[in-house]
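User: Okay, second chain of the day. Same drill as before: sequence in, structure tokens out.
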Amino acid sequence: MAAPLALLLTSCATVKLEPPPPQGVQISSQPGKMAVFIAGQPFTEYHFLNTPKPFLYPLIGPTGAAMTRNFPMASPAGEEHDHPHHRSLWFGHGLVNGIDFWTENPGAGRIVHDKFTGIRGGAEKGSIRSRNKWIAPSSKVICTDERSMTFYNAGPDARLFDFEITIHADHGELVFGDTKEGTMGVRIAETMRLTQSTGGVNPESRIVNSEGARDTEAWGKRAKWCDYSGLVDGKIVGIAIFDHPQNPRHPTWWMARDYGLLGANPFGQHEFEKLSNEKVGDLKIPAGQSVKFRYRFYLHTGTAEEAKVAERFEEFEAEPK
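Assistant: Same drill. Structure tokens below.
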């Protein structure tokens, strides 16, 4: 005997269908930030409000563990509280028309979010595009930038994204001054750093660049890419930064520090090469013109050699210009 229709409807109403598994790159708007998910897993958040400069925090690697330091956004036990301007991953420079846009010291400038110009997810990649104002302590706008962050669905063993920024001299001539305090930076997790906060050495940690310089020898050297690897939750992981071949002054100089800073700096020539001319590395951008920089970040498992960082850079180099 067939069941009454009302009973069938009641039974069907209790069935819960599971949503399809998330795929690709998803970007979610949240108060003061944009959250990025890759294949359903959290990757990073772009913080753009109530901050001295926009930044990405945290960076969660392919093992599911965070690969950047928490301070100053949080203060967990075991992390040093040095360099409070090292906000996970950021862009800035210590001498722009004489103003410090790198630190957060009294008298420093601010990079202020203006608006988003595009936010898009997708099966293979997603992107966040924004405009920002570089503002002096006097409240004068020094310049503006347009930045694009493209996040790729690169599979379970890697996290890959591009950071592209175009800086416009739309408020007069710009001079990016010669100083080591800059420019495209990431502060890695404390357990990955070469030297421990207690003064010891982490035997599993390594810095290596495209020219073969390793560890402390990589500081201030020019290279196409630089990789910093070490232990996080008992597993070797690493972060590589690729300097795009069309960037001004490629291959760039590297701020590769044993305490956990990895930065690409195309403006610090006199400090890195110990030259007497303190302005030899200045970069002038005439009023009305602009300059563009593009970097790729490759978060991987294993060492640089095991993750084939050199081969990944060659793929980046060969992409259509």
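Confidence is low (pLDDT under 50) at residues 1-14.

User: Thanks, on to the next one.
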